Amino acid sequence: MTTRFAQRVLNIDISGIRKMFEAAGSNAINLGLGQPDFDTPEHIKQAAIDAINEGFTGYTQGAGIPELRQALSSKFERENNFSVNPDEVIVTSGASEALELAIASLVNPGDDVLIANPGFVSYNALVEIMGGKVVPVPLGDDLSLRPEDVVERITPRTKAFIVNSPANPTGAVQSRSDMKAFAEIADDHGLTLISDEVYEHFIYEGEHVSPAQYSDNVITINATSKTYSMTGWRLGYIAARQQYVDQMIKVHQYVQACANSIAQKAAVAALNGPIEPVIRMCEEFRQRRDLIVEGLNSLGMRCDPPKGAFYAFPQVDNYMEVVKKCVSNGVVVVPGTAFGSAGEGYMRLSYATSQADIKRALEIMESVL
Fold it and tell me: Would you give the end-to-end CA distance of the chain in angstroms?
């Protein structure tokens, strides 16, 4: 008897992050979900209110409203040191849809996609949904992705590889030389590099480098979600050369039609507005990072300060027992294995919550461990 459901769905599971989040009690301290606890800046909210009051509530152009794509084109030139024209930008419903468009437009059944292990949970699932094969790439001692490890795993079946810097779950930041090497790998081997840059503004050591400044074979993915504390607005975007955009827009028009019109107006205000709220948020994250890293190490865990994003990724003895004890006592954390087999022995803690909550969580962890 044939099964009722498609094998592509049966092959994947609910995200380990989502499982931990939804299993927590209402009073739990959530160190599991990667969501800034800051409010969206006022000038961005006002732009959305104005859009509603002006009746800007219908469909937009599929690729996004012209003023937003122009603002994004200027942003890439100003902040990322590469040039795309507005027609080489697609506005999406969050970076999640952007990832789906990129992978759907590239991956045939049986194609290999190289993904960091551990790495963000969506990468593996999306590749499997498209019928591709995930090829895990181990991380170096500093938890960054090494170009030589990528090259070693390239075969005639390899279609693409994904780089995430700053990285979720590790907080690693790739060096400029790494990013240039990744771009050269894409060119030399006829591959596409998917560069996930959603944490670009949260860097505490090093610099953010977009590989698209070195190669045309790069799909750059980003969002307003983390940078402007707009996770619920669901506004992401893609930049790529026209040959890529022409294929991704076809998928976009059928799965989404267009991004939220009101959120698009808000994103224009975000990109063209002051950067000070982002700078203040980053400095607060730096203080939280130092607080949680010091606390975890004092508990006997082994946690180097992450260079970016807002996650600590400590090595922990008996890590699953520790995770269960934390969650049962009201501190939500995520086991490292939610991000890949190489996450065994680690757990991820988000410090996108208040210093008071971090201190309280560390006190609870100390008492139960």
Answer: 49
C-alpha to C-alpha distances, 255 to 92, 100, 154, 187, 249, nearest whole angstrom: 10, 10, 31, 30, 10
Cis bond before residue 166 (omega within 30° of 0): yes
Pinpoint the alpha helices (H) of 153-232.
176-189
Distance CA(21)–CA(32), nearest Å, equals: 6
3-state secondary structure of 278: helix
pLDDT digits (tens, 9 = 90+) for 46-90: 999 999 999 999 999 999 999 999 999 999 999 999 999 999 999
Q: Is the pTM of this model over 0.90?
A: yes
CA angle in degrees (0–180, nearest 5) for 234-238-243: 145
168 vs 337: CA distance, rounded Å: 13
Distances (CA, A) of 65 to 44, 102, 227, 359: 16, 20, 20, 44
- Close Cβ partners of 66 (under 8 Å, ≥ 6 residues apart): 86
124: Cα within 13 Å, side-chain hemisphere: 20
Distance CA 201, CA 167 (A): 12
Q: How many CB atoms lie within 10 A of CB 337?
A: 18
Domains and CATH numbers, the chain: 7-39+276-368 (3.90.1150.10), 42-272 (3.40.640.10)
